[in-house]
Design a protein that fits this description.
3 helices; 0% strand; t-SNARE coiled-coil homology domain-containing protein
């Protein structure tokens, strides 16, 4: 195994564009909710109940999106922590390299010591591999949880939009009935 492990870093780099894309789509959804609110406030007095529902839904969705953004920030912070650990691993490898230089200078005197250093290096490498694998599993699990939560939010949004559309249909029908009544009275 190489000290830098570039194949693992490449996996992290591939997640960041996906996170950026999700954040951009989230912003678009928030903007569309704002547009729905503008349309709802232009409705007549009988539509106030529907407008309040849309406003409450928009506020709730905005809060949920802010929670999602916070979670993405936490994920990014976690990635930064992983990057920092890689830096520390690199520093440890630099220290090991320095020890090997010293061992080469005194090779004839410390044959037995060189064997112990090799054994220790193997143990540390195995421990680091084990820790990295555990952290990778945790990151994958957390990312899967985040994805599930995003999917749930999308489902809730779809259901909310269906309800809003139903409310708008009811408002339109009520307005149509009022217009019909007004026209009948005018005749």
């Amino acid at each position: 195994m190489t000290p830098d492990k570039p194949e693992r870093r490449t996996g992290l780099d591939q997640i960041e564009p996906v996170l950026a894309d999700v954040a951009q789509k989230t912003d678009r959804l928030i903007e569309s909710n704002g547009q729905i609110l503008v349309i709802a406030t232009r409705a007549d007095a009988n539509a106030e109940i529907a407008a309040r529902g849309v406003a409450d839904l928009t506020i709730e969705m905005r809060q949920r999106f802010e929670n999602v953004d916070l979670r993405f920030t936490q994920v990014n912070e976690r990635f930064d922590q992983v990057d920092h650990r890689f830096v520390r691993v690199g520093e440890r490898f630099d220290q090991v390299d320095h020890r090997f230089v010293l061992v080469d200078e005194r090779f004839d005197q410390v044959d037995q010591r060189f064997v112990r250093v090799d054994e220790r290096f193997d143990q540390q490498q195995a421990q680091m591999d084990q820790r990295f694998d555990q952290q990778q599993v945790q990151i994958d699990h957390r990312f899967e949880q985040q994805q599930n939560q995003i999917d749930e939010l999308r489902t809730e949004m779809r259901e909310g939009f269906v309800q809003v559309n139903q409310k708008f249909e009811q408002v339109s029908q009520t307005q149509q009935q009022i217009l019909t009544l007004l026209l009948d009275r005018l005749k």
